[in-house]
Amino acid sequence: MQSTDNNEEGKITLRPLSRGDLPRVVGWxxxxxxxEGLGRKPxxxxxxxxxxxEEMIQDHSRLVFAVDNIEGVHxxxxxxxxxxxxxxxxxxxxxxxxxxxxxxxxxxxxxxxxYGKEKIGxxxxxxxxxxxxxxxxxxxxxxxxxxxxxxxxxxxxxxxKWNLSVLSFDLSRL
Length: 174
Fold this sequence. Notes:
About 30% of the residues lie in helices and about 35% in strands.
């Protein structure tokens, strides 16, 4: 994976996630509001994140980008996961709460969709979202993703079991 600036507005740059980014990511994944949207509990340690990072850099079915704003501040991550021979991938993203609402996720999504289509030949990108994360559902729908199924994952969060909504984006539309 190489550094890439895939944003026509120039508000963000996508680059490979690095070890130096991990303490910041751990901070985000210990923010209760960030964790709530992801359906996870705070409590991630730097050791756990470092172990995940070491596995991730060996995994050729996954590309994780750090999202930097125009000032060079790391504001979030966006990833293409489960990149398969079917030329589809799952997209996921997480941003520090202090960077929400500034258009960084939108710009990063545009860039990673273009990257997926042009650089690795993807034809579809999909996301799995917990229905209680209304902010994410609205974001993906605004980006042009269409809901196409509900998976009965029965993930427990907040004392309740949840299914996952699957939304997809046909890259031929780019």
